[in-house]
C-alpha cells in the first residue's frame, strides 16, 4: 500500500533529499509539497534535478488538505517548525527535521536556541529520532524529532561506549568535519563558493555549537551523570559528508568489540575492521554510517572515527527510516541506495 | 526472475558504478566479479563504499563459471576487451563498455585506435549501444557495444537534428566539458587532485579525440553523406558530468521542436523549455540527460546544450539499460534513481 | 618615489586583489580605502588574509581627502561608478574597474546595460584599458576604463588575427569557461558552494552577455566593418580562471605566426608552441595570459585557446598595469608575481 | 648582491614553490636546477606556470658546477637526500627540505623512517630549521634541515605554551587537516582527483605519522621531560593548507597571552584576537601562519588553532627564510607575498 507523504519546507536541501529518496521508495509517494516563498512554483523550477518526477507544485501550508496525508515531513527552520506543527491536525504523523523537538527540557531549548519554546506539550510528546536507539518509541510515536546531523554522527561513535562503561566520560574530545550542505541553502557570504572552496576552518569553537545540547542530554541520560564532551566542528570544502574524529580514553580492543557488538545487526551502521578508518567519500548519497576504531600509540587511548552523509543518514535518510517505522513499513525500505563514488 | 550478472573488470569506476546500480536493481544480482590485478580481494577492499553489499570476491576471468551467468558486463580497457570477449562462451550475452566494438569498420578501428582489430567477426556482430536509437537491434543482440561517454552526449544533442535536416551539416562545433572520472582510475600525473583541482584545460584539441570516430560513423550514416564535426573536450575540476555545448546553424525553434518531438516519450532524455540550458549538477548520479536549445543573437544560429553523468548515462547506466532490453526486462528497471544534488 | 593610492569599493574581490598586488609593489602604497557598507571597519575584518598589512581603515568616499592621492582605483558596481567618478576631482587620475566606461557610445551603453549613461562626458574622455593595445593612450589618460575579464581574454586571442585578416570574420565562435570569483562576492543562490561545486553550466547563452558589447565595439573597429562573434560563457567549479576556446576559420600556421609576432615583446602575453593548449592552473594568481593555437583536422579551421586569471590579468592586475603607465612607472612593476601552482 | 641558488629535485611541488618565491626575490637567482628523471627538459615543460621565467634547464646533479653556487636547496625524497648531500662540497650552504636531518638521534631516525641513517655526521651537523625558534643557530649553520609541514604547524601552536608551562603536557591532542599538495606529486591512487575530491578522511591514525618524531624530539627538549602528543592528520579536498586544531588543558587567557607575547615581533606569525579562529584560505600562497585561541565551555580547557600553507610556510617559504638568514640577507626578503584569496 502506498502512503501519501507531505513535505513542508520542500525548497531546502533536506526537502530535496526527501524527494530524492521517496522517488524510488516502494511504499511512499509525494502528495503535497509546501514552500512559503516559492509557493506556486513547480518543484522542477526550484530543483531542476527532480525534473523527471511527476510532483505536485509547491503550495502554502494552509493550502494542503491533510485529510489524505499519511505522514508529513517538516523541513522548516527551527522556531518556525514548532509554530507550524502546533497548527497541524493532532492525529497527523509528523517527522520534524528541525531542532525544535530534539531537547526534552524547555530550559535546555531556551539555553541553546535563545528563546522560550512555544509548544512545550509537543516537546514532551516528541520522540528523539535516533532510530537505532529509539526504535520502539519511534514505532509508536506520532511526532518524531530528527536529530542534528553532527549529533547523530557523534552518538553513533559514542553511545555504546558510554553505555558499556569502556571510556573515561570526562575526557571525550570530538573533532568534527562537515561538508557545506549542512549549512543549508541560506544566502550567507561564508557559504559562497569563492569563500569556501580550497579553504577550511573551525567554527562555533569553544563548546557553543547547538548540537552540544543533544550530546549533553543523551550522553548524560545514558551515563546517569552529567557528561560534557568537547566538540569542535569544521567546515570543509565538500558538499556532503560528516567525519567525526573522537578521542577517547579506554581500551581500544574493548571499544572496537563494544561497537561491533552493538551494531552487529544494524543494516546501516558498518563497523570497519580494527585499525581501519572510514572516509566520507564512501558514504556519500547513502544512509550508511561507517565507523572505525584505532588504538593510539599511547596505551589506554583510542580514536573512534565515524563517517556519514549529513543530508541522508544525518537528516533526510534518518527521517525516512523513522517514517518507515511509524508507518509500519520495513525499516530499510527505499534506503538501500548504494553510496555514489567517485 | 533474478538474472545472474558477471562484471569483468570490476575494479575500475565503471565497474563500481555497475555494482552501485545493480545494488537496487529489482531483477539483477551480481554473481561474479573479475579483476586481474586485484583477484582474491573482497570488493569492499577495492571499493569500501560497497561494503554493505554481499558481493562475490574478485577473481580472475578464467575462474568464472559462465554456465550460470545470464549476462556479462565487460568493463575492461580497449584491446583487452576484444581478446577477452573472443574467449567467452559464444552464447553468453555481453555488454561491452570498452571502445572495441563501437566502430563498424575494421579500418576505422585501426585509424582511431592505432592497431588492427583482432576480433573482426565480433566487431561485425556487435550492435552499437546508444539505446534510444538502436532499441530493437539491442533487444535482439548478443553483443552490445557501449558508446563513448562523450559520443553519447553529442549524439543526444545532434542525431534528431541531422535526421530532420534542420541544421547545416558542415558547421557543427561541439565544445565539451567533462569531469575527471571519465579518465578512469589510471595513475597519471594529470589526474592528480593537486594538478586538476581549481584548474581546467582543453585536451585532444584539433580533432584527435577517439570519440570522433563514433561521431563520424553515426552522423555520416544518418545523413547519408560524410559529416565531420569539430570537437574539443575539456577537463573540468569535477568528478562526474559531461556538458556538451553544440554550436549549430539552423532555426532554433525548429531545432527545439525537433528535439522535443524526438524525445517526447523517452524516459531518460529530458528536453528543457526553449531558452533554458542544463547543468551537470542536475543529472549527477543518474541516468538522465538534460537538453536545452537557445537561439543565438545572430539569426540562423542556435546553441544546443546537453548534460549527463559520464559514469551513469554515459557508461554504466547505459549498459544496464541495454542489458535490460537484452534480458527482456523493463528498460527503466533499476535506473530511475534520482540525481544527487547538492 | 612612492605613489599614494586610493581604492574605492575595496570590500569586493577586485578590491582585495588590488591590495594584494600593491602589497609588494615597489612604488605604490595604499593611502585610502572606501567601502560604503563596511565603512568604519578595519580591512583585516573584511579580508583576514590581509591581516599582516598596515592598511587604513575603510571609510566612506566623502571622507577621503583626495589632495594627497596620486591615483584612485574605482572597484564599484557599474552605474554606481559613473556617479562616484563624476564627483571626484577632475584632475585625479582614475582607473575604473566597472563596466561604466568601456563602451564608447552612449547608445551602446544603454543597449547593454539597460539605462542611459549619466556621465557621457567622462565616457568620451575614458580610454579603453586593454593595455597591450592602448598603451600610448593610457599613458596620457586621466581616466582609464578597465575591460571586462572575459572581454580581455577573447581580445587577446583575436585582435591580432582580425587586424591581420587571417580569419573569417563571420565565423568566430568563442566558448568561454570562467571561475566563480568573476561573479563577485554577491549573495546569490547560484554562487553558493553547494550549488556550484561539482557542477558546471552555460549561462547568458545566446549572445546576451554584456561583454559582447566590448567585443562588438573593438572587433568592428579593428576590422572596419561590423563583426559579431558568437559567445557562450560557462561557470566552472573553480575560483579563479578564464579559459576561452575560440573556433576560427583560417590557416592555423598563419594564425600562430600572427599571434607569436604580435606578442613577441609582450611581458605578460605568452604564446605557446604550435599545437599546445594552455590551462588556467598555470596562470592562477598572476598577470600572465597563456595562448595556444591548434590546427583542426578539418583544413582551414583552427582553435585558439587563451587562459588568464580573471581577478589579476582580467581585472586588478590589468588595472595596476594601466596605473603604472599613467603614473610613469615601469609597466611591469609589482606584476611579475609568478603563478601559484598547485 | 645577487646570490646564485641551486635547487636539487626541482621537479616536485616544493621545488616549483621555491622557484615561484625566488622569481620575485630581490637577492636570489636560480642558477641551477636538477631533476633526475626529467634531466634535459626545460623547466617550463615540467611546470608550465613558470614559462615566463628565464630558468636553466633541468640537469643531473653531477652536471652542476657548484663552485659558483652560494646555496643549494635540496628538495629530494628522504633517504635520497642524505646520500646526495654527503657528496656535495662540504663548504656549500645547504637547506634540506627532506626528512633526513630533522631528527637529532640516529636511533630516532631509524625508528621513524625504518632504516639506519647513512650520514650521521651530517645529521649531527644539521640545525633544525624552525626559523623562529632556531634563528641564531640557522644564521651560523651550513646545513639546515627544513621541518615537516605538519610539524611546523603544531610547533607554532604549542612551543611557547610548553616553554611557559601553561598547559598540561600529558593531555595534548592535535587534530590536523592538510591539503593534498602535502603528499607531493607521487602517482598514488589515493591522490587522484576522483578519489579525493568531495571526500576526506583521517590517515596515519593512532600515532604512526612520522612528524611525531619531530614533535617528540622538540617538545621533550623544551619541557625537559618526555612529552608525547596525540596526533591525527586528515586529508582534505583542497590543494594547499594545514589547519591544526589543538586541544589543551590550561587557562585560555594565559595561553593567548603567552602566544601573543612570544610572537609579538614575528613578521610571519600572526596571533588573532582572543576567541577568533583562523582559516587556511587566508594564508594560501603566503609565508604567514595565523593562530587563534578559544576558551572551551569547560573550565581549564582551550583550543589553539593554527593555519598555514604547507608548501610555503610549511616548506619552501620556510626554506627561503632560513636561506636568507644563512646568506646574511634580511629574513623577510622575497617572502612578504600576500595570500591569494579567493
From TrEMBL, chains A, B, C, D:
Reaction catalysis annotation: N-acetyl-L-glutamate 5-semialdehyde + phosphate + NADP(+) = N-acetyl-L-glutamyl 5-phosphate + NADPH + H(+)
KW Nucleotide-binding (keyword) present: no
Domain Semialdehyde dehydrogenase NAD-binding, chain residue ranges per copy: 4-141
Single annotated GO MF: NADP+ binding
Keyword Acetylation set for record: no
EC number(s) stated in the UniProt entry for this protein: 1.2.1.38
Metabolic or biological pathway: Amino-acid biosynthesis; L-arginine biosynthesis; N(2)-acetyl-L-ornithine from L-glutamate: step 3/4
Active site per UniProt: 149
GO cellular component: cytoplasm
Catalytic class of the enzyme: oxidoreductase
Chief location of this protein within or outside the cell: cytoplasm
Subcellular localization: Cytoplasm
CDD domains found in the cross-reference section: AGPR_1_C, AGPR_1_N
Gene Ontology terms describing biological process: L-arginine biosynthetic process
Role this protein plays: Catalyzes the NADPH-dependent reduction of N-acetyl-5-glutamyl phosphate to yield N-acetyl-L-glutamate 5-semialdehyde.
Name of the protein this chain belongs to: N-acetyl-gamma-glutamyl-phosphate reductase
Name of the gene: argC
